[in-house]
Amino acid sequence: MPGLLLRTLRGENASERPVWLMRQAGRYLPEYRSLRAEKGGFLALVYDTDAAAEITLQPIRRFGFDGAILFSDILIVPYAMGQDLEFLAGEGPKLSPRLVDSALESLHAVPERLAPIYETVAKVKAGLGGSRTLLGFAGSPWTVATYMVAGEGSRDQHETRAMAYRDPAAFQEIIDGIVRVTVEYLSGQIAAGAEAVQLFDSWAGSLAPAEFERWVIAPNAAIVAALKPRFPHVPIIGFPKGSGEKLPAYARETGVDAVGIDETIDPVWAAGALPEGLPVQGNLDPLLLLAGGAGLERQALRVLDAFAGRPHVFNLGHGIGQFTPIEHVEQLLAVVRGWRRPDR
């Protein structure tokens, strides 16, 4: 029988709630820090398939989450498309050449850079209990494009937004290229054992409504449309962070099976505004998890109660912070595990 998380993503509104946390495999865990100190830099960890599988499984062993999220990075796609990728201490990821300066056609694809990720998925699948769901993921085209164009992250994605306005045809080629590689990348993850996948659009909130339709909704819809005939039983979670009032349109028009909700969205509003019966995921503020205490418990219960009428995966509104205390995660899990959907 499929685990609770997979059943929920497929539309079951169970009395209890599955839980996993974005970035649950990472720097807040002492076992991760120990392994990273032994193995070296971030990209080296991603491409060491034994280490990446171990990191993916670490939070499952410690906390018993309902889902394991693949340890990797959204920039593996531009890396496979031919950009150079490095992670600099204190600066974050850097891609070169920047597509604000170079044409997409100048890149020489290196598709073999995807193969180790599939190997990691297979190793995690072999080590994961049957009741846990293995989640694959990729960055959504808009968010990936912001890094490809600018060569790094930015506060307001101004170079990429300006390029999309200035030369929409050239920018459409970048988006289309990302869509093609992402479909194959997620297909490879699913073939290797991923049971559900998530599309992360971390910078979706920077776009005006018309641009959101073109650069967020349309490319994600294309990915979903390409994956569904291949893998009709594999749920796709869309997470357009910062989308606000544009979230219902995203949910309706992309065709995703579940929608992730960030911490800026009122869960009561979302429960009423989103399509009836659509599974949702979220949306506790990661900073509230960092703070802990009674406020954490109150808001966790508010989120759980708000989504009692539909399938709900409990999660954060974005990734868990590096300095989050382990005991706060344990406190949150006690609240979620103890909650039951009221009889109706």
Keyphrases for this structure?
344 residues; alpha/beta; TIM Barrel; 7-stranded parallel β-sheet; two-stranded antiparallel ribbon; 9 strands
Describe this structure as you would to a colleague.
The chain is of the alpha/beta class and 344 residues long. It has one domain (4-338): TIM Barrel (Alpha-Beta Barrel). Helix content is 49%, strand content 13%. The protein has a seven-stranded parallel beta sheet. The longest helix is centred in the middle third of the chain and has 25 residues, at 168-192. The protein starts with a helix and ends in a 6-residue tail after the last helix.
Lay out the secondary structure.
Blueprint: H1 4-9, H2 30-39, H3 42-47, H4 49-63, E1 67-69, H5 76-81, E2 84-88, E3 92-96, H6 115-127, E4 133-139, H7 141-150, H8 158-166, H9 168-192, E5 196-201, H10 209-230, E6 236-240, H11 247-254, E7 258-260, H12 267-273, E8 280-284, H13 286-291, H14 294-306, E9 312-316, H15 326-338
Parallel strand pairs: 1-4, 4-5, 5-6, 6-7, 7-8, 8-9
Antiparallel strand pairs: 2-3
Helix pairs in contact: 4-6, 6-9, 7-8, 7-9, 8-9, 9-10, 10-11, 14-15
